[in-house]
Design a protein that fits this description.
This protein is mainly alpha-helical. Helices cover 45% and strands 11% of the residues. It binds one RNA strand through strand 5, strand 7, strand 8, helix 6 and strand 12.
Length: 480
RNA sequence: GGCGCUAUCGUCUAACGGUUAGGACAGAGCCCUCUCAAGGCUUAAAUACGGGUUCGAUUCCCGUUAGCGCUACCA
């Protein structure tokens, strides 16, 4: 039975890179009818926060994929210590009494770092036991074979054959001096206990894998298969980070900006993975069917955002496409929270009228209040009266069009087709082009030149509002 | 510094060693049209560099350069 896990540590919000790792694991699990496990890697008690945990769960729930089993590392400490003890018992680990951080200064010299703490590796067992018994704190370090010249090998599901000499691997810690397991130990102990068959994680772990394989071997466990994912980077090439790149690296930022979960997920899938058949917009089932490790490439992918444009244009396009593909009812429902959040009230009936008018004009759900603000606002935002003047016309023409428009709208049946007929007829009567008739009316009711189709807009706005706004526009015209 | 990884249009990517190096987004232009969108058509845009191997390299090998990652008692 294939088992994979996603193992976030609750030390920050859910990162887009983490979200992608989750999605790829999920797709891999579903593709192979395996089990998806969520494991919270919370052994760094100093850095864990409740807010972070919430952010991660919020983000994952928003994605809507779900998982089959859930664990928390902090509840499994006994298991981790047991494994550490077993490794220590085989003398494959040793106590390091160097005070935490004390070696940092000497190790950060010109030419890098040492592979193991001076003196500690060679400490006799008797001496080690004596100091431990006296209560002196110590970290437990893995004893990487030094003289053997051994080379660790593994076959990476994405990067292929990997190898590294043990001579280049430092004696990493298993247990901290407070007794808490480190990531390496806890992760391996849990992966072994949970019978994880495939570890799919970021490429930043590729060098850690050589350590992990040694832990599995020391514990007498068959290591799982590994596959590493290329990293998501910013346009400057650096790994995405909150400090450097701001909220664009958080999944909740995308949610709050009005991305649909599937569009976001679809976008992430296209970063570093390809179905190799030119397909881009894909429903979940297709993604699940198509997803293989072979489709993952090896170079980092740029998330193409900027200060001017906080979201990758491709993500935005995918979202716009997804919005266009939605049924009007579902879209109206998705849009409503964004309307109310902006401080407007709207009835479901009016929302049903507005939605088709803006459906292909918004790329993000949040744009409902920028593209369609005039549908919701009681008062139109101030606009330049000159906008009312049609092409090849003047203020007088605008005034005639508006007066005629008001007259027509006062009696017309307020539905799309009758409105169009009435307004077209009005333009003929005035001896002006249809566009010269529509333009002043559009600006009068919308407050701007670029707006959704006029007749549907008038219908959604209703007679009273339209007439009121045309009246205001006529007043405005007098100021020219 | 050491170790590891990577390198095709601006970005995401495709191409059994043989293609006019394909697609998508973004850009430009045209068409459609009540404006804006959407849609349709067209267009510009790439194999980092240098050596091999080969009849033939985007593709295989080596080197250079550049970038990234790891080098914590973080994960």
């Amino acid at each position: 039975m294939l088992r994979v896990r996603f193992a976030p540590s609750p030390t920050g919000f859910l990162h887009v890179g983490s979200a992608r790792t989750f999605i790829f694991n999920w797709l891999f699990a579903r593709h192979h009818r395996g089990t998806m496990i969520l494991r919270v890697d919370d052994t760094d008690v100093g850095r864990n926060t409740e807010a972070s945990l919430n952010s991660i769960f919020d983000g994952l729930r928003w994605l809507g994929l779900g998982w089959d089993e859930e664990y928390r590392q902090s509840e499994r400490l006994a298991l981790h210590r047991e494994m550490a003890q077993a490794i220590f018992a085989k003398d494959l680990a040793y106590r390091d009494f160097t005070p935490a951080g004390a070696a940092d200064t000497e190790r950060s010299g010109e030419h890098g770092t040492w592979l193991f703490p001076p003196g500690m590796r060679e400490l006799s067992r008797a001496e080690s036991d004596r100091r431990a018994a006296s209560g002196e704190p110590f970290a437990l370090r893995f004893r990487v074979p030094r003289e053997s010249g051994r080379v660790i090998h593994f076959e990476d599901g994405v990067f292929g054959e990997q190898s590294k000499s043990t001579a280049d691997i430092e004696d990493f810690a298993l247990l901290r001096s407070d007794g808490m397991p480190t990531y390496h130990l806890a992760s391996c102990a849990d992966d072994a206990d949970l019978r994880i068959s495939d570890i799919i994680r970021g490429q930043d772990h590729i060098t850690n894998t050589f350590k992990h394989i040694q832990i599995f071997e020391a514990a007498g466990v068959e290591p799982p298969r590994f596959a590493h994912l290329p990293l998501l980077v910013a346009p400057d090439g650096a790994k995405l980070s909150k400090r450097k790149h701001g909220p664009v690296v958080s999944v909740t930022t995308y949610r709050d900006a009005g991305f649909l979960p599937h569009a976001f997920l679809n976008f992430l899938c296209l970063l570093g993975w390809s179905p190799k058949n030119d397909r881009e917009r894909m429903p979940l089932v297709e993604l699940t069917l198509a997803f293989t490790l072979e489709g993952i490439n090896r170079s980092n992918a740029v998330v193409n955002f900027s200060e001017a444009d906080p979201f990758d244009p491709k993500a935005v396009w995918l979202n716009a496409e997804t919005i266009r593909g939605m049924g009007p009812g579902a879209l109206a429902e998705a849009l409503t929270p964004f309307v109310t959040r902006a401080g407007f009230e709207v009835s479901p009936a009016k929302m049903a009228l507005i939605t088709p008018l803006i459906q292909e004009r918004i790329r993000l759900l949040s744009e409902v209040t920028t593209v369609g603000d005039f549908f919701f606002a009681k008062q139109l935002a101030p606009y330049d009266a000159a906008e009312l003047i049609p092409q090849k016309g003047d203020a007088a023409m605008a005034a005639r069009a508006l007066e005629k428009g008001a007259a027509v709208l006062a009696t017309a049946e307020f539905r799309h087709d009758p409105l169009e007929q009435a307004l077209r007829a009005a333009s003929v009567e005035l001896g002006i082009k249809a566009g010269q008739m529509f333009q002043p009316v559009r600006v009068a009711v919308c407050g701007r030149k670029n707006a959704p189709p006029l007749f549907g807009t008038l219908e959604a706005l209703g007679r009273e509002t339209c007439l009121e706004r045309i009246g205001q526009a006529l007043e405005k015209l007098k100021t020219i």
